[in-house]
Write a structure and sequence with these properties.
The chain is mostly beta strands. The chain is 13% helix and 39% strand. It starts with a helix and ends with a strand.
């Protein structure tokens, strides 16, 4: 009887470990909160794109949260503007981007890019709150259940290294006294039609 119980326990442990290994290999999204992020890579990423995200938000409300490529989006509002969305939950719908109710350890980050002269977005640099520049970066927002706030860094910038109809890739640097948003990203492109 003891041998049977040991065999059942050993088999159950093996199956559990196998399932966990498979989930990590398939690249499931990062867990919420301060838990360790699961690495998710994009095979054959375009030149100018990282194969995985290193983008991390840190704040008292959000904790430290990493965002995987499957939960990273660029919604195009037209050739000259769009919004990035990064989240640590799985049910984001680019057709209905505000449908998810932020609850518990859910975290969403968003920021807007716009060319004031209406020229198409392309690789380049967008500096935060620099109204004299053509490339306009607005609102580095961090949403949690209890707070919707922003990273207020007058030196914040977004550098786009690749802009295509498949992905938009780049790097964000923004840090203020209570929060930060830093790292590289590869985000899926979605052409939002009005």
């Amino acid at each position: 009887m003891k041998i049977q119980k040991l065999l059942v326990l050993a088999l159950s442990t093996t199956l559990l470990l196998s399932a966990c290994s498979k989930t990590q290999e398939e690249g499931t999204p990062a867990p919420a909160g301060d838990e360790a992020a699961v690495v998710e890579e994009i095979a054959n990423a375009p030149e100018g794109c990282p194969t995985k995200n290193t983008l991390v938000v840190k704040s008292e409300e959000a904790g430290t949260v990493a965002f995987v490529p499957s939960n990273s989006w660029f919604l195009s509002w037209g050739p000259e503007s769009g919004t990035f969305y990064f989240m640590n939950y799985n049910d984001f719908d680019p057709k209905n981007y505000s449908a998810h109710t932020i609850a518990g350890k859910d975290v969403r980050v968003s920021f807007d890019l716009k060319n004031k002269d209406k020229s198409p977005l392309k690789a380049g640099v967008w500096n935060y709150r620099k109204d004299a520049e053509n490339n306009k970066l607005d609102w580095l927002n961090v949403y949690t259940e209890k707070l919707a706030g922003a990273v207020f860094d007058d030196n914040a910038k977004v550098e786009i290294t690749y802009f295509g109809s498949d992905y938009v890739c780049g790097k964000v640097t923004a840090t203020d006294s209570s929060s930060s948003l830093n790292g590289e990203f590869i985000a899926k492109f979605y052409d939002w039609k009005f």
